[in-house]
Amino acid sequence: MRAQPTIRARPLLRFGEPPQACESSEQAGSFSLTDSSEQAGSFSLTTLATPAALHDYFNLAVTTTVVVLVMLAHTVHPRWNRPLAIVMCAYLVLDSAWLAIQPEIFGGGSAGGGALTIMGHHLAALVVALHAATWPIHTPFVCHMAVVELNTLVLTAKRTVTIGGTLVTSTLHAIFVASWVVTRLIWFPFLCVKLSLIGGYPSLARRLVCTVSLLALTVLQFVWTWNFCVPPEKQVALR
């Protein structure tokens, strides 16, 4: 679903150094795996009114809804997978339109890329979500794919939380890094392979399109991770 925001990358997780998060209202929509809490808890109506801040609150509302639906599908009944798939499709279309109108909310030229990278991610995610929403045999897998949105929710909360100071932002950052590794670098690649190999696709063409989309999403997440961890001169160029 949600692509990762533009990332202001720097070398991270050096031995002996705790990860730090770099955030400012000017960098809304960006994040890194390094953390500074100088602006933690800062808030103003001016900041809230910026397009990037409004986009963050929009994402916070949507990802909260998605995470709730994921939990319902896992713990209550699989029928919640279809509403989840529909919400994801709607979100991806709306967010892509927003990015097309206001691409500046993601900046550009940084390790995570700008609006073009995010829209490419959204297109691949939309292909997979739309397939799941329209092919009942595979609809139950939606809640497994959407587990990664727990990571997106933590990231968005870290950018929008205005109370608790350093302790809260540092805790959210630690959860963000851990959930990034578990959900995006371990769980999602495993699921990508599984969904590419299972049967039940209505046609070979649909299988190939979904497989290519899943592979693109997986590769992009590893590229982002590489860019987070290396100096700018070694990063993969994203737009």
SSE topology sketch:
Layout lengths: L44 H4 L2 H25 L5 H21 L13 H20 L7 H4 L3 H12 L4 H33 L6 H26 L10
* Rg on CA atoms, Å: 18 Å
Q: What's the number of helices?
A: 8
What's the N-to-C terminus distance? 19 Å
Helix share, percent: 55-70%
* Biggest sheet architecture: none
Order of helices and strands: HHHHHHHH
Mean pLDDT: 82
State the secondary-structure class: mainly alpha
Strand content: under 5%
Low-confidence stretches: 2-31, 36-46
Total DSSP E strands: 0
The geometry reads as globular
The number of distinct structural domains comes to 1
Describe this structure in words.
The chain has one domain (about 45-235). It has eight helices and no strands. By secondary structure, it is an all-alpha fold. The model is unreliable at about 1-30 and about 35-45 (pLDDT under 50). Helix 2 (about 50-75) packs antiparallel against helix 6 (about 150-160), helix 6 packs antiparallel against helix 7 and helix 7 packs antiparallel against helix 8.
